[in-house]
Structures are given as structure tokens and as C-alpha cells.
Amino acid sequence: MNHSLKTVQQAEIMDNIDAPATPRRRLPQWLRLQLPTSQSFARTQALLEELKLHTVCQSAKCPNHWECWSKGTATFMIAGDRCTRACGFCAVATAKPLALEADEPARVAEATRRLRLRHIVITAVARDDLPDGGAEHFRQTVEHVRSLNPAITIEVLVPDFLDRDESIDTVLAAHPHIFNHNLETVRRLTPAVRHRATYDRSLRVLAKVKNRRGDDIHTKSGLMLGLGETEDELLQAMEDLRRARCDILTLGQYLQPTLRHLPVVEFISPEVFARHQQTAQAMGFIHVASGPMVRSSYHADEFPAFATHGNGP
Q1: Cα 24 from chain centroid (whole Å)
Q2: How far from each other are the two terminal CA atoms of the chain, in whole angstroms?
Q3: What local confidence, expressed as pLDDT, does residue 296 receive?
Q4: Greatest Cα-to-Cα distance within the chain, rounded to the nearest angstrom
Q5: What is the rounded CA–CA span in Å between residue 120 and residue 255?
Q6: 106-130 tens-digit pLDDT
Q7: E strands along the chain, which residues?
Q8: Which residues of 58-81 are buried (b: 16+ CB within 10 A; e: fewer)?
Q9: What percent of the chain has pLDDT over 70?
Q10: H helical segments located in 33-164
């Protein structure tokens, strides 16, 4: 996709949610981070460069990557760094993807071994150009990671695979502990925020996983707040996730990665996030992470629901 076309699409998206394309708003105090400095950050960065691995931390301009890398953790992004979709919130490049790298699963596993991770999150760009959406690449990566670190807890954060049953089954065949697919936003805003994705398709993917594996797997999803959703719409989205038997929920503040992306409509206070957490817990989610800096994989290794989960092949 050329730059001019993407710029036009972004402008159309902004019009769809009635938000002007203005410069980014000043961050409230609770979103201003003090960047940590440690030798662990440099070691993690060097390791990723040596093994030629992509992370969602870098590609999606995650605000937490300084902290995570300083702790020696990262969310690995497989199947390249070029996405076939152009979502209005996401900083990952939209371009024609390159061929899959056959040795990438082994390189991810080696990084996992060297970092001595207890929990790994494996995500990927959307690969709508592939017949299986990249599902087999996920399976191979999970299996390589487990072969080098049998005790690790494995979380996959997957695209929707266009709701292909065979792709979902391929990923499940690798026996990840957590199957994560983000709803991202409320129903009304989905067409403007998520390119080619649909609200109901995402719910179907999560429901299929529970129908196939039941309590042997945790399902997880996340939403970004501050894109213009109402509280009633957010509550409806959480109820829809529970109907799909989603176990774990993350709620975080949307932050505009560049001026070409959707603007922030509202900064949600920590107090409101805390209230949403209580509401979600009352709905029956077994674990809820809710706060301005929460992201789908942020502190994922600290979630108590994962630490006590012992399923596997």
C-alpha cells in the first residue's frame, strides 16, 4: 500500500469516529513514564538483533518496551514485520509481506532459552496472503519453544485467521496454555479502528477455542479505551466476551503512535480503569488487568491465573 493511499484511509477513519486529525494531545501525568536504564535492556536489545527477531514492542511502538526489555522480557512477533492490514490504531507497517523464514521458530526458541523466560507471548502480523494465515508458523514456533524450555507457559496472541477452522485447529494442536485474540474496541467503532476485521468474527474465534478445548485452555482478549467508546458500549463488549467464555481481560489506554493514526478522544483516569476492573471481575473473568499502561502482553508472566495453569501436550 502506498503512503498516499494509507493517508487517505486514515483520514476517512478519523471522520468515521468524528475525531479531527489534530496534533496529539498532551499526556496526563499518570501516562508520563520515567524510562528505566539497566544492563538488561541493552542485553535484550543485543540478543534480538543477533537473532534477527522482531518484537511487537518495537514494531507497534509500545510505550512499555523500555521497562519490559530492562526486565529481560519481550513479546516476539513472528511471520515478519509487514502486515496485510492497515488498522487505524496500529503502528506496524502495512506492506506486501516477505516469505516466511523457516528458521524463525528455532531463533525464537533460542532467545527464549537465553532470556530464561517463564512465560512467553508469541504474536504475529496478520498474514492474509497465506492460505492458513500463518497458523502453521505459529504451531512450529510453539513447539520449538517448548522443546528448549519444557516448563515455560506459552501464550499465543493471534490474528483472526479469517475465522478458518483449520487454522484455529492448527494453532491449538501445539497446545498453547493461553489463546489470546484481541477484540480491540467496541462494536460501533470496529469498522473504523480495525481494517478487515469484524467484531463478531473475533467473538466467534474465541468461542471456537473454548468449544474445542474447554477448561484445558485459557482464552484472553483486550480492549483499548479512549477511542470514543461509551461506558454502555464497553460494558456490552465485556458481556459479549463473557458469552464467548473468554477467561481473561485486559483494558488499557489507547495512545496514538504517530500523527497518521487515530487520535485519542479521551484519556481515561486510573480511577475509572479500577472501576472497570471491578465490573469485569463481577462478570466472571478469572483475571482482569485494567489500567492506563496495561497492554495485552504487559506483565503477562505475573498473571496468577497463568502461573497456576498446568495444561500442556
Answers
A1: 23
A2: 41
A3: 76
A4: 50
A5: 24
A6: 999 998 898 888 888 899 999 999 9
A7: 54-55, 75-78, 82-83, 93-94, 119-124, 153-157, 178-180, 218-225, 248-253, 287-290
A8: bbbbbbbbbbbbbbbbbbbbbbbb
A9: 75
A10: 39-50, 56-59, 65-70, 104-115, 135-148
DSSP 185: S
Collapsing DSSP to helix, strand or coil, 121 comes out as strand
For strands 54-55 and 75-78, give the pairing.
antiparallel
Task: Read off φ and ψ for residue 77, nearest 5 degrees.
Answer: -110, 110
Q: What burial class does residue 272 get, using C-beta atoms within 10 Å of its C-beta: 0-12 exposed, 13-18 middle, 19+ buried?
A: middle
Q: Which of 221, 230, 213 is nearest to 290 (CA)?
A: 221
What does 279-307 look like in DSSP terms, one character per residue?
Answer: HHHHHT-SEEEESTT--TTTTGGG-HHHH
Q: Kindly report, residue by residue over 235-267, the tens digit of the pLDDT.
A: 999 999 999 999 999 999 999 988 888 999 999
The pTM assigned to this predicted structure is: 0.82
Task: Give the separation between CA 43 and CA 221, rounded to whole angstroms.
Answer: 30
Phi, psi (deg, nearest 5) at residue 54? -100, 150
Q: Taking the CB of residue 303, how many other CB atoms lie within 10 A of it?
A: 22
In this structure, of 22-36, 90-104, 198-212, the range with the lowest mean pLDDT score is: 22-36
Name the helix (H) or strand (E) containing 25: none
β 54-55/287-290 pair status: unpaired
